[in-house]
Amino acid sequence: MQTLTKSTTQSVKDAFPLNGTDHVEFYVGNAKQSAFYYQMAFGFELTAYRGPETGHRETCSYVLQQDKIRLVLTSALSPEHDIARHVREHGDGVKVLALWVGDAEYSYNTAIERGAEAVSSVETLTDDHGEVKIASIQTYGETIHTFVERKNYNGAFMPGFEARKGLCPSKPVGLKYVDHCVGNVELGGMNKWVKFYQEVMGFNLLITFDDKDISTEYTALMSKVVSNGNGYVKFPINEPAKGLKKSQIEEYLDFYRCAGVQHIAVTTDNIIETVSQLRNNGVDFLYVPDNYYDTVTERVGEIDEDIEDLKALNILIDRDDDGYLLQIFTKPVQDRPTVFYEIIQRKGAKSFGKGNFKALFEAIEREQALRGTL
After folding, report:
1. CB within 10 Å: which end of the chain, N or C, has fewer?
2. φ, ψ for residue 35 (rounded to 5)?
């Protein structure tokens, strides 16, 4: 596969060139069962595997793909392994936000020169299909960015992995590519990490939301969105704000035990078909009351979709100067209330659904109340 981001013409020269999201790696308690869940529930296809059968004795990894989205699910095979420690402390969660680059050595050296903390220097992995170069730096919490250079590789994923297909056929649900990945950080950490992305990786500040934009009667949070020059990689960074009760960010930090990835937004070209299939597959979504739809057309104006179809599926709508978007959020996909997914369809809109924030966060608060953590 030659591209891992949406097809569009790059018109801006990046200060820190990125081609898009290469993959997202989760550390999980049972990679085999997690892989089955993503195949059956989200329609991903198993494409590669690494484990004892391939000569890797310490961990098992399953590579799943749907269009340009690639997930890697990794588990440790012994309780002493650091991955087992990570899962014990944080639960299943995102460890690696891997970025596809043209030159891993340049990306890594540039990041280090600009003040990034090194995790692993450039390593060249080889097999009969060519070579992949990787290097990693630290970001918020225990999350890392791995730079992946794969222009000289034509294998299933990268050296050390073997091509593999699932025993049960999975049916894609129309997910296309990663739109953005959201990080939750501790109070006071948002500006620190925005500065990191600006100064180390040349990102631009795209938009800022304060506690007046993102608040309910009980809770509030603040968020800033940073984006690389070509717009292929976008990272909203959230931190808690003072409220009457515990915010969703504080709940996340309590359960994850540190800063980390809160949710991954993935795009579709037909959100009605995608969400219908996901619901049929057993994916559970946040609930927004029907009265949300009583005045939504007054706020967003005319849209192509039938409001009754969106209402039946609980899909939210918002508009900006460039168009409108449709979005919906899953409940957490593991027992701890940490990582979840956003399904988004952009009909020209470049924003993040500001008009839906109140309804969304009230929906999250209802789930918090059921858990006794509000």
Report:
1. N
2. -60, -40
CA pseudo-torsion sign 201, 205, 207, 211:
positive
- 225 with 345, same domain: the answer is yes
Q: Tell me the pLDDT tens digit for each residue of 80-91.
A: 999 999 999 999
Report pLDDT for 355: 67
Residues 10, 14, 20, CA angle at the centre, nearest 5°? 65
pLDDT digits (tens, 9 = 90+) for 119-150: 999 999 999 999 999 999 999 999 999 999 99
- The whole-angstrom separation of Cα 73 and Cα 24 is 9
Q: Which domain holds residue 313?
A: 175-371
pLDDT band for position 361 (50/70/90)?
low
Structure tokens at 270: 């037909």
Task: Give pLDDT, residue 214.
Answer: 61
| Same domain, residue pair 341 and 277 | yes
Helix intervals (H) in 319-356:
none
Report the CATH number at residue 103: 3.10.180.10
- CA atoms within a 13 Å half-sphere pointing along the CA-CB vector of 233: 26
Torsion of CA 361, 366, 367, 371, to 10 degrees: 130
For β-strands 340-347 and 323-329, DSSP reports them as: antiparallel
Number of compact structural domains in the chain: 2
Domain shared by 54 and 94, yes or no? yes
**169 within some domain:** no
C-alpha 315/C-alpha 237 separation (Å) is: 24
Q: Which of 90, 61, 59 lies closest to 76 in space, CA to CA?
A: 59
- Contacts with 327 (C-beta within 8 Å, 6 or more apart), sequence order: 265, 271, 315, 316, 318, 342, 343, 344, 345, 353, 356
